[in-house]
Amino acid sequence: MSSRTETSPSFAGAVLVPGMPQLLAERPAPAWAGLADGARAAGERLRGAGAETLVVISTQWFTVLGHQVQVDERLTGTRVDENWYDFDYGTMHYDLHTDVALAEQWATEIESAGLEARRTRYEHFPVDTGVILANRLLDPQGGLSIAQVSCNLYAGVEDIATLGRAVVRAAESVGRRVGLVAVTGLSSALTQRWIEPEEDRVEEPTYEEWDRRILGLLADGDVDQVLQLREQYAREAQADSQLRALAFLQGSGQLVGAADVLEYAALWGTGGAVVHWPG
Amino acid sequence: MSNVFRVPVGDRTWQRRGQSAHSPDAQGDAPRLPGIVAGVLAPHPPHLLYAENPPQNEPRSEGGWEVLRWAYEDLRQRIRAMDVDVIVLHAPHWITMVGHHVNCVPNPRGFSVEPIFPHLLRYEYAFHTDVELAEAIADQAHDDGLVTRKMRNDGVRVDYATITALHLLNPDWDIPVVSLSANNNPYFYSTSSLDQMHVLGESTRKAIESLGRRALVAGSNSLSHLHWDREQGLPEDMTYEHAYNHHQYRWDMRFLELIRQGRTRELRDLIPEHIDETESETKAGSLTWMLSALGWPEGIGEVLAYGTVIGTGNAVCLWDLEKGAR
Ligand SMILES: [Fe+2]
Questions:
Q1: What is the pLDDT of residues B207-256, one digit of tens each?
Q2: Distance from the alpha carbon of residue B310 to the mean position of ligand 1, in angstroms
Q3: Is B189–A188 a contact, with Cβ atoms under 8 angstroms apart?
Q4: CA separation for the pair B140, B204 (Å, rounded)
Q5: Cα-to-centroid distance, B52 and ligand 1 (Å)
Q6: B230, A234: Cβ pair inside 8 Å?
Q7: Topology at the third CATH level for domain A11-278
Q8: Sign of CA dihedral A57, A62, A64, A70
Q9: How many CA atoms lie within 13 A of B236 on its CB side?
Q10: ipTM of the complex
């Protein structure tokens, strides 16, 4: 277990939230509503700690070559999810303001660390469901700006960790206080049929055991142990994108204390959790 | 928990078309029979579309990956000669988490920016769906025990694999289309079952035959799928383009030899092994779906080209059920 040490003055906390749009359902399952409430509470904590910008990695913006940093100043549009389009929560309007100064500096820091950082600025770029959802729940008033990096599924996790380290350096450099956000599921045994919200439960009991074990370790402040178990967790419970998004948070060097697990519940059979680390 | 029917392997369904005893004039003057005319393996790296510089795509290139693109050019001529009513495509980047979806939007149109390679593909698409066939495939697949959905929401962006494969097969976009989703995620999940793809292939064939369409079925997968995780400067700089490693290459060649020799039943057995050895994108099931729709035809596979794209193996292949009859 880590003993508490000082975090960066630029660090306002970190959260892990699910990326499934069910959290925005007009008629949510109790489990979905609990996760949404947990995410809103985590957002309040980040804002209460003085976060100015949400720094987001979402497993739903996955890439396979290099790393992309979103530098488009304003991302606005309507996202229709390619799986959930028939449900009320499958259509999401968004209007995101990128912290361009931070994002540009972040890209520079990533390059200084020897990695590639493509600056992405394209009209009609398809912002993913996870980013929109996280932004909506963590910052319902839309008062914060955002910085995003893609989740490279082929890169080693040490590279993903480097992205987290780089953004703290960038925030210090431009004098910004940031909340780090990992948008990721846990186990992913998705229920393979159309269900009613109240039917939702984690599909595989062994997967739920895995999720709870992982969350227990995070609550004990033992992120290192979780990352050591990461590959086994991925094999045995199909952890979302091999839980790379947690490596991003850990790479920041700011997860120095115990995490607060605000919620854990089923999301169409997968495991979803809201976890907060204080700044 | 699965109520999916098991389909027998390549033992009953296919025959060389236009050459039966009842078609004495088969050679060179085939009757225009309904049903599946041919199947193709049509890989979709956006690099290939980018390299073509079509007017619909915003980025400009200096070319690259010519051998694969020439194979597609040849294939287009052969598709023209087939005179099909519809191209039915299964591609792995319309990822649906629950069920097999069929695009039933009559006239999908929009601007598709590719989130993985936005510098290569920003494409203005517009095409026509054979809605009657799309719905029939969804209904048949449902009746055959699969979870399905008819997608009628024209706000869903068409993915880059669907666009790239369809463009390369028919850049004029003048043949109606049915587009199927991939009910799995080759990136997120460690394994995916190919069993449902056999069933979906059978369902597709039944629907095509019940409506009397002449159809080309296209499965869009790369082969070996390990690749670089860092970019080179100019994407089309071919000095960087080669197989990811010898192992991947050897396995792709073993795979393609079976296709060339027409040993489709053996190929079926090799598909899972090839996936294990090379992370082949056939894990997404498009190839299995296509060959199942064809009935696993023996003796007619052709490899038109093989080439690598950022290190992945890609082959353009054809199974022409009317070969020799046109
Ligand atoms: Fe692909």
A1: 999 999 999 999 999 999 988 877 778 999 999 999 999 999 999 999 99
A2: 12
A3: yes
A4: 7
A5: 18
A6: no
A7: Protocatechuate 4,5-dioxygenase; Chain B (3.40.830)
A8: negative
A9: 19
A10: 0.90
